[in-house]
Amino acid sequence: MDEQPPTPPVADGEDHALDPRVIALHRTVGLIFAAIVTIGSFIGLGVALLTAGVPAWQRGLLAFLWLALIILLARFVYRWPVVHYRHTSYRVDTQGIQIRKGVFWRVVINVPRSRVQHTDVSQGPLERRYGLGTLVIYTAGTDHARVDLDGLEHRDAMRIREHLLPGGTSDAV
User: What is the reported pTM?
Assistant: First the structure.
């Protein structure tokens, strides 16, 4: 009988990166967005140039600028998920969860278990395709009353969710 190796405890107090599949997920979402922007702007620019009676040299210049912006958008969509991935981490310990994220404006969010009202794990169709999920934590308080952590393996998100829920006789409110 094959035995599975023991699953490490979820509350190990160590910093963890997101699942690397989140890079491909964010690239897919970005490419969908870029495709919509490209098609919409192409149609809009084409209609505007054809109906406005713009000289040929200006049409060529605008088409070149449009193409340059689309190429910059595609490059951004491809590279940004890697940067976002490198600047996002989380730590779960016996006291709660700490989330670090942000490239330009860095944010550290600490959610003690005693403040957790309830938790959810959600999966959109693309997240499901990549085996990922989003942990959503609702807290007692006004600032950061809803905290999201996307890019977790679905199984890990469920384990963290279970850990953060109040257990025993303690009251989380």
Answer: 0.84
